[in-house]
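Hi team,

Below is the intake form for Hydroxyacid dehydrogenase from Streptomyces lutosisoli. Please confirm the fields before the structure is written into the shared record.

FORM ID: S-0412
PROTEIN: Hydroxyacid dehydrogenase
ORGANISM: Streptomyces lutosisoli
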Amino acid sequence: MSHRMTVAIAMQPEVAALALTEELIARLDKNAQVQPDVIVDFTDPAARGNLADADVLLTGWGCPLVDDAVLDAAPRLRAIVHAAGSVKHHLAPEVWQRGILVSSAASANALPVAQYTVGAILLAGKRAFRLARDYARGQYKNRLAADTGNHERVVGIVGASRTGRLVLELLAPHGFQLLVSDPTLDALGAAGLHPAAQVELVDLDDLLRRSDIVSLHAPALPETHHLLDDRRLALLRDGAVLINTARGQLIDTEALLRNCADGRIDAVLDVTDPEPLPAGHPLLSLPNVTVTPHVAGAMGTEIRRLGEFAVTEIERLTADEPLHGRIRADQLAQLA
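The structure came back. Fields below:
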């Protein structure tokens, strides 16, 4: 770089406090001038002044939409580095049309989601969620029941996304039979997902029929909207557990309610449609359904990992090195 880059930060201040510690800001200061004010509104006059000087925009949760008007106010902008996952909600197509580099910490955010998912899978195999509800209601059931335990369980992963691949990797040592369904994957690609695990590529209907536990990791796209509808949910074997840490729109909520109401299948949902579910929604009271408030992704101390990724990306940028989290325009259609 011919001049010292200037970095503007745009995200919720409370997110910035978690993602960008003093140590990380000090790292940035070695290679760039970091503007002290966190932007929360691009129309604010002070924000306009910061944009005018910015070579890099470091974004995070709560960043306002970056559109043509914002880009016009940032004539020096070279890159947008997002200290979180999806960039679809705050970056307009004009960002790519103007040739601005975009990077996302989605791979760093995938790890806590995968860890949460694996924990949910292991607990689901033990029937821990349902048994805990029963226990709270005074029903101490037989822990030696034949439908509990994880040995040789069949786990189906829907979507070989970053998170889906990490889940497969983390499940490899546990002795599961692993299935995967993804229209972008071929048999050779499935065989290479993890060297220590034999992952069988199957179509979605077959995966649903065969799996004891199904975990969703597909993006929210028009073609995946209500991917699991009444017909597909009916394919799940009695006693199957459905886990969703991806996007709520992948499941038809009313169809799920119908399939869970009689206890035939269980569900563990970290995302829902709508989100949040309205108070008193019947899914919330079913003993075989566990709903958490979208906590699988980075939280608390984990948010620093996203900041570390973003700061490292800016360091790569200043050294004219390739960005590890680069998002290209032609990838957007398949990303969450």
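SUMMARY LINE: The chain has two domains: 5-104+300-334, 110-291.

Thanks, M.
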